[in-house]
Structure formats: C-alpha cells, structure tokens
From TrEMBL:
UniProt GO MF annotations: DNA binding; hydrolase activity
Lineage: Bacteria, Pseudomonadati, Bacteroidota, Cytophagia, Cytophagales
Keyword Membrane in annotation: yes
Keyword line: Hydrolase, Membrane, Transmembrane, Transmembrane helix
Protein name: Serine hydrolase
Pfam families: Beta-lactamase, HTH_3, MamF_MmsF
Topology relative to the membrane: Multi-pass membrane protein
Highest rank taxon of the organism: Bacteria
Stored SMART domains: HTH_XRE
Domain HTH cro/C1-type: 10-64
UniProt-annotated location(s): Membrane
Keyword Cytoplasm: no
InterPro entries: Beta-lactam-related, Beta-lactam/transpept-like, Cro/C1-type_HTH, Diverse_Enzym_Activities, Lambda_DNA-bd_dom_sf, MamF_MmsF
Annotated transmembrane regions: 79-100, 121-142, 148-170, 191-209
Length: 594
C-alpha cells in the first residue's frame, strides 16, 4: 500500500460516522469505485476529492490528508520545541515567560490538538510559577530562614521542569507540568471569560512587577528589622498609653520615604481623623526650612555667611519703620553696641546673643545678651533678624521667597509661613494634656523661626529632599551640617541651660546652621524639633546612612513618647532626650542620675 495513511484515515473516519462506502459515495458525490481504491491504497486522491470526502464526513481535510511522516514530525517538533522553549527566551523581560507561549498557543491551537494541549499546559505552568515567585519574594522579606530557601528554589525548579518538557515533548509529543493551576481549561463555553481572567492576571502581575509594594520590613540603624505592622501596633499602644491625641510618623530608608502613617485625631472633641494632608502648626521646624532657604541665597551671592548683616542695609536696622505688629521693630537696639557684629552664620547657629523671644525678657525689650558668636543660646529672634534683613535687601517677603525656592520646587503644596484660607477645610487643632483644644492662631505674620504651616506629607518631602541633597549644592549641604559650636549645657532650655555637663561629650553634641548635630556609629545625625502650645514635633536624619524619622503631634503629650518611638522605629538611641526634656510618660524619676 503506497499511501496507507490516507487509506487508514478514510476507513477510520467512515466507520466512526457509521457510513457504508455506498452511503459515503452518496453524500460526497465521489464514486464508490474511487472510495474503494483510496481505501485499498491503490491511488493518491486529488485534493478536491479529499475535500469532498472531508465535507461529507464533517471533519477537517487534515484529518484525512496527512503530510508524509518525515515532514509532519519535523514541523511538529519545531513548533513544540519553540513553544516549550519560549518561556526561557521570554524570561529576560517581565511576564514575557507567559506572553511568548500565550501568543504561540493562540496562533497554533486550531491547527493541531497537540499544540492546543501543550500550549495550555505551558501557559498554566508559567502563570503558576510567576505567582509562586511573587509569593516567595514576599516570604524572603518577611520570613527568616525558610523564606530565603523558598525564594532560591523557585527558579531552579521552573527551569528544570521546562528542560524536561522540552526533551519529552519533542520525542514523545507528551508534556507534564506539575503544580500548575488550570487557568486555561478545555471547556469552550467559558473561553471568553477565561481570556478576560488571563488579561486581568497579566495586569495584576505586571503592576506588581513594575510597582512593587513597599517592603514590609524597616531596616533600622543597627541593621535590625521591624515589620511595618509591628511598628504600627507599637505606635498605637504608645499613643493610647500616653494620651497622644494625634500623631504622624514618617520613616526614611535609602534616602526615601518607606513608611508614612497618621494616627488619632485632628480634633479630638469632634473625633475628626488626622491625615497626612492635614495642616499642622510646624513651630520651630520652620527654622530647618529657613536655613536651606538662606543657603540658597548664599549660593546666589545675595549675602555671605560671615558678613555683618547690618552692612547690607543703607541705614541702621532700628531706623526702619516697623511694617509688622512687632517682629521687625528694632527700636530697642538704638543704644546696643553688639548687634552690629551679628552675621547670618551666628543667627543660624543660635550664637547671635539674642534671647529666644523678646517677650521672655522682663521688660519685653529686645537686646543682645552676650558677645555674638561666643556661645550657644537658642534664639528665634536671631532667625527673624536674618529674615528681616533679607526681606529689605531683596524687596521680597519671606513667604514669597520660600514658595519660589523651597515649597513649589519640592511640591509642598500645603505649606506656608502664613495661614492660608485653603487650610480651613483640613487643619489640626492643638490639644492640652487633657484633650482641651487650644484656639487656632490664624493671624500670625510670617516669621522664619516659628510660623510654618505644613503637613506630614509636605514636611516628609522636605526631609527626603535633604537626604537626597536637592535644592542646594553638595558644598552648601556640607556647610549646613558642619558643627559651628559645641554644646555642653545640661538642658537646652530653662535654668539648667546655663549649667555645663560632660554627659553628652561622646555624642559630640553641637549645632550647625539651623540644625542640631550629634555623632553616632552610623555617621552624624542632624535633628530639628518643634514645640508650641498643643504641637510637639521631632525630626532627625542620618544622611550617611540614608535613614531618618519625622514625628509630628498635635498634643502636649507628644514628647512623652519620642524616646521610645525613636528607638523602636529606627533604633535611634542617640537623640539626647534628657537635654531636649523629652521625659517619657512612664519615666521613673527615682532613677535619674542628674
């Protein structure tokens, strides 16, 4: 028999349909004699004859007229080899291990049942392994030990199964992909639904690949880990135990924000929730922003850090008519012989000699209390003096300068040195220790040392920019964080600020330009706090480690959790909490050594 394949197929298909040769001849219009000769293998039928027979039998032409064995095997082997190898070729790009075989399956599935079966198996396996790989990555960062072994086992297992199937598919036209989820089934009625499910799965996987979820772990300064869930749980416990009414926390790793969350209320009485876009009074966080603004103006040659500020003005500072209610009134300096020595560096490093605020003086008069540049004494007045000089030199307000050079470039859209009507819809009220609301002060005139209105989100952007050395040159950042004076006082404020101690000498506690500085095993730390009625904040960055934290509260109980929160969140055990007077809510005063 010269052409046994056609003969055997015709006999098989005819008997399968239950036709006699006569019945098939009647249906196909092919003579009985021709059908008999084809079934005996005596002739090679014309293509048209095969088509007539296939139509009568309601089958495909290919089911009768098969290629010669060598050609069929060669063609099928090539396609199966390509289909089973495609995931390896596509593994270079995200999700192409799925997309390449999916395309081949869609293209070939109607040509041959073998292609359809193999294609489904390949796509199902690759989708399953992609999901398993994603889960193993999550396990890697959440489970110690086992997570690592699971992660490194997925890829070798996948490659092994692929290689085995390449060999078996080519030699025996069989395949076996264990652990596969049957995303693609053979039921035709639901094919449309399954195609939609595949597309959705692709989108989810692609989204996960391109926009991975933030790591559920925070790597602290000492290399130890804490999960974000554990940190959140601890914060909730702290604010509950200490009675903190509202709190925002941002943690920085690798010079980027990795954790940002708000807790509690912007208005405890109304039970209105605090959010990261709620405006909070920033208090002395104002000074950190202003110091960066000043260094930008130094870069632009507007002023020099070491030139006495008075020399930039055409007349004495006390000769100017005040334009504000009080902060630019320097008439009290007419008889002062020291203020003319004050420079921008002295103002930013709190060595100007001015008091913190003039209203702390018995007569509420501003004066220079010691030789400028000789010692540290925290002074908001020093910052305001520098602000007033800059405004007169440039003819622009502090608010305009800050918006142009800091807030707008960093996208701090809800930050300002003065109250804005836009803040009315979402702002935080300050709370006393017992939860009584302080009246909201909305008529402050812009002051560089104290009137910043901002949000957790906005101020986090600012701190992230500091870590990433934006806005300024690297030389300016280095200048900003260079110690200007060492600190030896027992406390930062109050009577003990005039008492020296050696308690903090290992920290090399000092002050730079607008920021406090300390030393740690992980490089220097730059900190800035904020304190006002009902608002207590703290921030510290470790630029060399790329880490830091921002804590903002609208509660007079806020500072009582700073010590523990700093330790838990980033293992900051270096912030001088006693010097800052951050007394923990559960502190045992009998254990004090000082």
């Amino acid at each position: 028999m010269e052409y046994p394949s056609i003969a055997e197929n015709l006999i098989y298909q005819r008997k399968r349909k239950g036709y006699t040769q006569e019945e098939l001849a009647g249906k196909s219009k092919v003579t009985i004699r021709t059908i008999q000769r084809i079934e005996k293998g005596e002739v090679k039928p014309h293509l048209q004859t095969v088509k007539l027979l296939a139509a009568a039998l309601a089958i495909e032409v290919e089911d009768l007229m098969i290629l010669k064995k060598s050609q069929a095997e060669t063609s099928q082997e090539k396609w199966l080899l390509l289909m089973h190898s495609a995931p390896v070729l596509g593994g270079i790009l995200p999700l192409c291990n799925i997309l390449f075989p999916l395309f081949l399956w869609l293209h070939k599935r109607k040509h041959n049942k073998v292609y359809d079966m193999h294609g489904r198996a390949i796509v199902n396996f690759q989708m399953t392994m992609s999901i398993l790989f994603l889960l193993s990555f999550i396990a890697l960062v959440t489970l110690e030990g086992y997570g690592f072994f699971l992660f490194i086992a997925v890829i070798p297992y996948t490659l092994t199964v692929i290689l085995i199937n390449i060999v078996t598919a080519v030699h025996s036209q069989k395949c076996y992909y264990p652990l596969s989820i049957p995303f693609l089934r053979t039921r035709k009625p639901s094919a449309f639904k399954k195609l939609g499910a595949i597309i959705i799965s692709f989108c989810a996987l692609f989204s996960s690949a391109c926009h991975p979820e933030p790591s559920p772990n925070i790597t602290r300064l000492d290399g130890s880990l804490i999960t974000t869930d554990s940190l959140t749980s601890k914060i909730k416990q702290l604010i509950r135990d200490a009675g903190v009414h509202g709190l925002g926390v941002t943690v920085f790793e690798n010079s980027h924000i990795t954790y940002q969350k708000t807790f509690g209320y912007k208005d405890y009485k109304k039970q209105s929730l605090l959010s990261d876009s709620t405006n909070l009074y920033g208090a002395s966080l104002s000074k950190a922003v202003f110091s960066v603004l000043v260094m930008k103006l130094v870069e632009e040659k507007v002023i020099d850090l070491d030139t006495p500020l008075e020399t930039y003005l055409p007349k004495k500072i006390y000769e100017y008519q005040p334009l504000t209610r009080w902060h630019d009134d320097y008439s009290g300096l007419a008889q002062d012989t020291l203020y003319s020595k004050i420079t921008a560096r002295m103002c930013l490093s709190h060595t100007s000699g001015f008091p913190n605020w003039r209203w702390f003086e018995p007569d509420h008069q501003l004066r220079v209390k010691f030789e400028p540049g000789t010692r540290y004494s925290y002074s908001g007045e020093g910052f305001v003096y520098l602000q007033v000089v800059l405004e007169k030199v440039l003819g622009h307000s502090l608010e305009k300068l800050a918006q142009q050079k800091i807030f707008k470039p960093l996208g701090m859209n809800r930050s300002s040195y003065q109250w804005q009507e836009a803040f009315e819809g979402d702002y935080a009220a300050g709370h006393t220790t017992t939860g009584v609301l302080y009246p909201k002060d909305t008529d402050n005139e812009p002051r560089s040392g104290s009137t910043l209105e901002t949000t957790v989100e906005d101020y986090s952007k600012f701190m992230e920019a500091v870590l990433q050395r934006k806005i300024l040159t690297k030389e300016s950042w280095a200048e900003l964080f260079t110690p200007q004076i060492k600190l030896h006082s027992l406390k930062q404020f109050g009577p003990l600020s005039n008492t020296d101690t050696t308690l903090y000498q290992d920290l090399l506690l000092g002050y730079g330009l607008g920021w406090g500085l300390l030393n740690s095993p992980f490089g220097f730390g730059a900190f800035k706090e904020g304190h006002g009625d009902g608002f207590q904040h703290y921030s510290i960055l470790f630029p060399e480690a790329g880490k830091g934290i921002l804590i903002m509260t609208n509660s007079d109980n806020g500072e009582s959790i700073f010590k523990e929160l700093l330790s838990v969140a980033i293992r900051d055990v270096y912030t001088p909490w006693q010097w800052q007077n951050y007394i923990p809510y559960n502190h045992n005063f009998h254990s004090d050594k000082i």
